[in-house]
Amino acid sequence: MTFWLNGAFREETRAIDVADRGFLLGDGVFETILLVDGVPAFWDAHRARLDDALEALRFPVRSDAFALTAARELAARARADAGAGVLRLTVARGPAGRGLAPPVPAEAAPTLLMTAQAMAPYPDEPAALVVSKVRRSSASLSSRFKTATYLDNLMARGDAAAAGADDALMLNERGRVVCASAANVFVLKDDATLATPPVGEGALPGTVRALLLARGAEAGFAVREAALAPAELSGRALILTNSLMGVRPAVIGGVAAPTRADALLSRLQMWYRAVLTEDVEQRARQL
After folding, report:
1. Strands, E assignment, the chain
2. Potential cystine with 226: which of 37, 64, 171, 195 (Cβ 3.0-4.6 Å)?
3. What is the Cα gyration radius of the chain?
4. d(CA 171, CA 79)
5. Residue 23 and residue 16: Cα distance in Å, rounded?
6. pLDDT 10s digit of each residue in the chain, 287 long?
7. Which CATH class is domain 127-278?
8. Looking at the DSSP assignment, which residues form a beta bridge with residue 228?
9. Domain at 2-118, CATH from 3.50.30.20, 3.30.470.10, 3.40.47.10, 3.30.428.10
10. What residues are paired with 225 via a beta bridge?
11. How far apart are CA 211 and CA 242, in angstroms?
């Protein structure tokens, strides 16, 4: 396997220190980034979100430790530079002595890892959803950031797999809709309004979610945050978003979305693809 670790490209299968807190305690954060012909999409947005996590969790490193040129070279070495691929940036606290207290900054040696691999395109048909039994805490740091402590999401995805579904909706402690196990969720209404749960409800601040909130009006959509009860999803067109799938329709319990939403969804997907292409082309010119 080809990967980038702490500034060097390597070809191994075992490379992480057994005392690394990321492995032992889940003391780490990560970003998952779409590669388009080897170019990381929305690189700046992902780096900004990573920096937010690193600062909030008191990591003595910032995202500029990951160079765009190194990411592009890794994609080529890993044969993820043609078509769609996925790049993952991981920062672990690094090796330390036993116990929960993190090492003092002067003694910390964070582990920086980049991996890349080719990715099959997501299916065109809507994602099938179930509602997970796993509740997501609105106050947890692991809800606000992409941390290595991903157990709740893994168990929710397990609920989906057991039911033969693609993904699972997660509710918070108040019983309101928050997100899917690996995606943000939007409700699409007939008047071209898109509603998504607020971060304060426990939703991850996804990069595509942020893009729609900031620029959705360009495509003719009114995009807002709103607390959503499960009953409000009934009979509505649902959309999942994340950096790898982009914008994908979804259904709960096999109940199809109203057909009148199809045109709105197509318009949103076309706009997103155009914005994605613009970003990738701009990034390619920097390489």
Report:
1. 2-5, 8-11, 28-36, 39-40, 84-92, 111-118, 127-136, 167-172, 177-180, 184-188, 193-196, 222-225, 237-242, 246-252
2. 195
3. 19
4. 38
5. 8
6. 899 999 999 998 888 999 999 999 999 999 999 999 999 999 999 999 999 999 999 999 999 999 999 999 999 999 999 999 999 999 999 999 888 988 887 788 999 999 999 999 899 899 999 999 999 999 998 999 999 999 999 999 999 999 999 999 999 999 999 999 999 999 998 789 999 999 999 999 999 999 999 999 999 999 999 999 999 888 889 999 999 999 999 998 766 655 667 889 999 999 999 999 999 999 999 88
7. alpha beta
8. 177
9. 3.30.470.10
10. 196
11. 11
* In the chain, domain spans: 2-118, 127-278
